[in-house]
Design a protein that fits this description.
By secondary structure, the chain is of the alpha+beta class. It has 4 helices and 18 strands. It has a 12-stranded antiparallel barrel with strand order 1-2-3-5-6-7-8-11-13-16-17-18. The chain starts with a helix and ends with a strand.
Amino acid sequence: MRRLILISVVFLPIMLTAQQTGLSRMKEQPGSGASPLGDASSTGGLAEASMTSSASGTSPSVAESQPDPQPPQTSQSTQSQTTAPAKEPSGPPLEGSMVGYVDDAIVGSQVRIRFDAGFKDNAPDRAEFFYPQCGCNGGGAPGPKPGASNNINFQQLYFQVEYAPIRRFSVFTEVPIRWIQPQSFIPGTGTPTFSNQSGISDVRAGFKLAVTASSDHSLTFQFKAYFPSGDGSRGLGTAHYSVEPSLLYYQRLSDRWAVESQIGGWLPINGSSLSGVGNYAGDVFFYGFGPSYQLVNRENIKFAPVVELFGWYVLGGRETVASVINPPAVPADASGTNIVNLKIGARTSFGRHNSVYAGFGQAVTHSVWYEHIVRLEYRYSF
């Protein structure tokens, strides 16, 4: 039921927007035929002209002998302008997106290289969002072991390519490489504890479809799929498939102000389970909002600070926590966990193809995916 509500939250705005867009276009289309009243007035005008000429003493034959006036000459360019169909407004340029954590709603071809450094993840197996349930739980749990980490630092390097064959549709793929460094473990959960790990993480792929797109705003549906290419037993992936539908929005408020947002859900498929407990993986609802202001707005260079608020709400699943009784760690219910981060950064765009983002994120809730995060990104659009 929760998953159905989550999917409805993502898709309902799309259906309402599409319906309103269709109604607007129907209202804007002119009629194809001439008005009957217009034809009648034209006929009445001819009759009136005939009666006037008779009253003034001019014979019909003389009137008929008058040469017909020549229609005004129109140039070929004027005719082409009249008959040419109206062009659909072009979308905003790719450098219009200034956010660093909210996925951008602008559809286009681009290449991204992104680096994240996260610190103090105190529940890395929560809902199997970062990696699978701790192997210390036994029963074939796919996560790393021995030991249940309660503090992990990590770094991830992403390579992303997005290609748009048409203006409103694009496909993309993303290959991440992950490094993790466990900092501490729940006492009594196993020794020796697992060490630092590195390697490819879960590959992602998906598409974007712009529901509306103009120079001032874009409303885009994004679908992303996660593939279990990372080794879950080493903490490099989740060891299961998952999908992530989301709705992205871009709105230009002025020449300098813009706001971007995102709402969606992360839905695991065939996550692990634990005897007597149930599914360890759980659905996660997420949202993000980010206004930006271009302090520098020149033709070849733009500089914009951006503040983003990003949050996650865990709808189900489990997480490994310390216990005061034996065993020393137990799987606890993770549903209802609320995580909110504040991100502060800036994006610099130079030319029409290049931009660089640098930002810092801080958790503002007790529950976290990380307490702090640093992000650096280079983006090339083409």
